[in-house]
Design a protein that fits this description.
This protein is an alpha+beta fold. The chain has seven helices and four strands, in the order H-H-E-H-E-H-H-E-H-E-H. A four-stranded antiparallel β-sheet has the order 1-2-4-3, sandwiched between helices. The longest helix is centred in the middle third of the chain and has 19 residues. It is globular.
Length: 177
């Protein structure tokens, strides 16, 4: 498939088949994500792949509150994206420019992971709504490291949806705002 077709297929899947995900496919997603660009090549991330059913269900509980993210329990895998310490030049750049380069980097690496998963016939959903403190404790992530995202991974159990996006004229201008 070409890139445009891939972009149209990638969506946030919230229903999964009980079929396990092959280790080879998981590692291909990790390898593709590993190659993502980052500010000053800091690569401020670590992937924690959770396939142990007990741990995965605990993470699902961490994500399910106030009616949110009940579907996480269906996913065969949950990936925790841990924010690691950036290198010195990235950290200095963030301070000088008032931009959190590490969070931009996390977005890029997460998207690259999800696009690779889509190309392999897998579904993903990036989750920011979860009990981070409890996830950190469950996965033995040392304090004060942050976990900005969880990503579910599995074979989707729902059809592809039509993308609803703002019209181009609302999100685009040329030469001036």
């Amino acid at each position: 498939m070409n890139f445009n077709e891939l972009i149209k297929l990638r969506q946030s899947d919230r229903s999964y088949l009980p079929q396990p995900v092959e280790e080879k496919k998981v590692m291909q997603c990790i390898e593709t994500a590993r190659l993502a660009p980052s500010a000053c090549n800091a690569q401020p991330w670590k992937f924690v792949v959770v396939d142990d059913p007990g741990l995965k269900n605990t993470l699902a509980d961490c994500a399910a509150s106030m009616g949110m993210n009940k579907f996480v329990v269906e996913a065969p895998l949950v990936l925790a994206l841990v924010l690691e310490k950036p290198n010195l030049t990235s950290k200095i750049g963030s301070v000088l420019k008032g931009k959190e380069y590490t969070l931009i980097d996390i977005g890029v690496v997460a998207n690259q992971f999800c696009l690779q998963a889509t190309e392999l016939g897998l579904g993903t959903c990036m989750i920011g709504w979860f009990d981070e403190k409890r996830v950190r404790k469950t996965l033995n992530v040392p304090f004060p490291k942050r976990i900005p995202l969880l990503i579910t991974l599995g074979y989707p159990n729902s059809p592809n949806r039509e993308k609803k996006r703002k019209p181009l004229e609302q999100i685009f201008s040329k030469n001036r705002y």
